[in-house]
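Data's thin. Show one?
=====
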Amino acid sequence: MKDGWPEEIASAIGDIARSKGMSEIARKAGLGRKALYNALSEQGNPTLEALMSVLNALGLQLTVQRKAA
């Protein structure tokens, strides 16, 4: 996931969410289970708001840092 393509990031977060239980993560994130599956699929394109809600439900945070020169 070096390049950080959105679909790879969403898919990786989806893998984590599935390992924790999609129903529980959807409930904590305030999303429908099907919407969560769709957003975090390889073809998904979650909004930043949805992504942040899912990360919060997973106990994770998004960090941004400057690229190395």
